[in-house]
Amino acid sequence: MTIVRNAAELGGTDARETALACLEAGIAAANPERVVADAVTLDDQMLHIADDQYDLTDYDDVLVLGGGKAGVGVARALEGVLDDRITDGVVVVPDAADLSRVSVVVGDHPVPSERGVEGTRRLLELAEAADERTLVLAVVTGGGSALLAAPAGDVSLGDLRETTDALLDSGAEIAEMNAVRKHLSAIKGGRLARTAAPATVVGLVLSDVVGDDLSVIASGPTAPDETSYADALDVLERYGIDAPESVRMRLERGAAGELDETPRNTDPVFDRVRNVLLGSNFGSLDAARNEAESWGYDTCILSSRVRGESREAAKTHAAVAEEAIFTGNPVSPPAVVLSGGETTVTVRGDGTGGPNQEFALSAAIEFATAWRTETEVVLACADTDGRDGGTDVAGAVVDADTVDDVATARTALADNDAFDYLDARGAIVDTGPTGTNVNDLRVLVVEQPE
């Protein structure tokens, strides 16, 4: 199945075809139905999840609760394994789907909405009713921080939305953003596990977080949390975020000890909780590496943990291509250098784009200005969920010919308007929603110098 819908327009050379094939292999490796099938099996009444097993005769109810961008795929795969053994369930996801045992509620991303709040409320009601003879299969996937919206205390949805918008524009990293969101929520930061206690809870996790920190993925609804209300306040201060009064008052009350902190690792609620990592960015990079090697390229995984400002990280990747051409390091052409992680954009202009588009445009400027050789260099960047930033495109494919007017390209980058520039150049990657989310995937193809 072709994942990149406009692959024919983006291809045309061996380097471009290789870059696209690697992108597709990486995204396919994170398909939620595929990773669940690898980890979850049923043998009569014995449910096997990774290295653990659960005797279904010990449970009166099996619930599927959670959400995120890969929520439908995980829930559908669980229905395929368990069928009518699933008693009930709710997943909150970005796109509508029909499942037989689990209710699908459409929410919104990256800013939470009323329909997401309603779906999360229904989910929490099922968790609240769980007892020691309930098995909760918690679906925890990227995007859950926005989709699973449950404002706590006096924080309104409007105030939560305003705070989320400010965090998204600030350039804060995901762990910093989620430290704030956990302390404004009734489900994040281990609170789903606390609500479901004394049920047995198994978190089925697809990571969209650098380093696969369980407490950060979807803001860690089933994981212990070591951040505090004071940490959340510090994020607001460092990024100059003027949060609504209800948000600041809740965080200040928590920092003063007037509110319970999120549950720590020592909390007994986690005695009956197990989290299983089903898919990650490195798994996708590994699949992309295998694909590149099948095309005859030497490969190097630079890192699965690239972060920081997109346009700056792109310059480093352009320098890696240059080094490979002139010194053969870190790998000699023909080569494919792969990286993942999650870069950020500090929004200063009023254009349209996303981290992968800014990364691609910045790299293309470097390709056009920093050095010129007879070697073909292609960079493909994509968000594995198919939606880069606030756009409906995944990213871009660029080379040394993408930028033919450096001044115009730099102006677009300064205005955070990478989409319009790259779209006009026929460089945009269109996948549509992929049904998964394991962060960004970048493929740098360096051909043999002539």
TrEMBL record:
One of its GO terms (cellular component) is cytoplasm. Residues 336-440 form the MOFRL domain. Keywords: Pyruvate. Residues 19-252 form the MOFRL-associated domain. It holds the Pfam family DUF4147. One of its GO terms (molecular function) is glycerate kinase activity. This is Hydroxypyruvate reductase.
